[in-house]
Write a structure and sequence with these properties.
Blueprint: E1 5-10, H1 18-31, E2 36-41, H2 43-46, H3 53-70, E3 78-81, H4 87-96, H5 101-105, H6 108-116, H7 123-126, H8 128-137, E4 143-144, H9 151-168, E5 177-178, H10 213-221, H11 238-250, H12 253-264, H13 270-297, H14 299-328
Parallel strand pairs: 1-2, 2-3, 4-5
Helix pairs in contact: 3-13, 4-8, 4-14, 8-9, 10-13, 11-13
Bound molecules: tryptophan.
Tryptophan (TRP) binds at residues 7-9, 11, 42, 45, 132, 135-136, 144, 146, 150.
Length: 333
């Protein structure tokens, strides 16, 4: 495959969990060597919910630390904090002039937020897709590794980029598309029997990268199962299938087959499976957890990483903005 420009942002909401790692970050680690990658921490996006300044700072730091601990390499990719690039709000402002109220009001994520937080329907929330567009097209990205829930935002990014090109009669922006690394979208299920591993269903539903062995054992002991198979060779219920799915990712193949055949013969003891799976998760996460705690202490490293990221990202952003300013008619005398 030829080299693509890839952009991905993550809103800083605290610790990363195993789902973030297996579903995204470990793919980023591979992608960074194959493509031109921009990974950023979307702290401007956080402002829609008015976080308190100390929390915001801590959350940004935590994502930066954990991204590094997972193996993102500031030399191989461009790793930066969104608010270090004032070029992004400048492009956002330009794009806003061509974004229609009606089309923004129809965005599913906006309608959902307006319904769930009726007391804080601010203009930033309405124009969230415009800011996300700026994030992506400021680097002229063509691929964005995001899940299904971001599909509509990407469609808008194409619309806004194309519109800018058309209005100003310049081919500045290519079209960005969603991207599954390795063409597979793996779902990392949560521990409570439901859908994907996500913090919105509570801390008990996720295994955080920083969870201690004791915490992991405790969470796993409470993981939801069912009353057990009663007939041989019946397909597992979804909570049990979820545990098999996680096992597939962190345990050996022999162990997975072992428990699957115990299940098939109705001889499975969920307590054993959960204990065993907990130990495999602990072993799997241990090197990451150790790196997190090392990097967390290393303020100098973090300062350096943020600075390099800012410089590399600004180089690409300045180039694009220069073209936009020129196209719009902001020209030097
Ligand atoms: N909206 C994305 C999310 O909620 C985060 C995000 C912001 C993003 N800007 C981006 C993702 C640009 C990819 C590219 O997950």
């Amino acid at each position: 495959m030829s080299k693509e420009i890839i952009v991905s942002g993550i809103r800083p909401t605290g610790n990363l969990h195993l789902g973030n790692y297996l579903g995204a970050v470990n793919n980023f680690v591979k992608m960074q060597h194959e493509h031109t990658c921009y990974f950023f921490i979307a702290d401007y996006h956080s402002l829609t919910t008015h976080p308190n300044p100390a929390d915001l700072h801590m959350n940004v730091k935590q994502v930066l630390v954990e991204y590094l601990a997972c193996g993102l390499d500031p030399e191989a990719c461009t790793l930066y904090i969104q608010s270090d690039l004032p070029q992004i709000p400048e492009l956002y402002m330009m794009l806003n002039m061509h974004a229609n109220l009606g089309e923004l009001e129809r965005v599913a994520s906006f309608k959902e937020k307006a319904r769930t937080q009726p007391n804080n329907i601010n203009a930033g929330l309405l124009t969230y897709p415009v800011l996300m567009t700026a994030d992506i097209i400021i680097h002229k990205a063509t691929k964005v590794p995001v899940g299904k829930d971001q599909e509509q935002h990407l469609e808008m990014a194409r619309t806004f980029g194309n519109r800018f090109n058309r209005v100003y009669q310049k081919e500045i922006f290519p079209e960005p598309y969603a991207f599954n690394y390795g063409n597979e979208l793996i779902k990392i299920p949560g521990l409570q029997g439901g859908g994907k591993m996500s913090k919105s269903d509570g801390d008990g539903n996720v295994i955080n990268l920083i969870d201690t062995p004791e915490v992991i054992r405790k969470k796993m002991s409470k993981a939801v199962t069912d009353t057990g198979p009663t007939e041989p060779n019946t397909p597992p219920s979804s909570p049990v299938q979820n545990l098999f799915d996680i096992m597939k990712l962190v345990s050996s193949e022999e162990k997975l087959t072992h428990y699957q055949s115990l299940y098939a013969s109705c001889a499975i003891r969920y307590g054993d499976l959960k204990k065993d799976l907990a130990e495999d998760m602990i072993a799997y996460l241990q090197p990451i957890r150790e790196k997190i705690s090392d990097i967390q202490q290393n303020e100098e490293l973090l300062r350096k990483v943020a600075k390099i990221g800012k410089e590399k990202a600004a180089e690409s952003a300045n180039q694009t903005l220069k073209e936009c300013r020129e196209a719009i008619g902001f020209r030097a005398f």
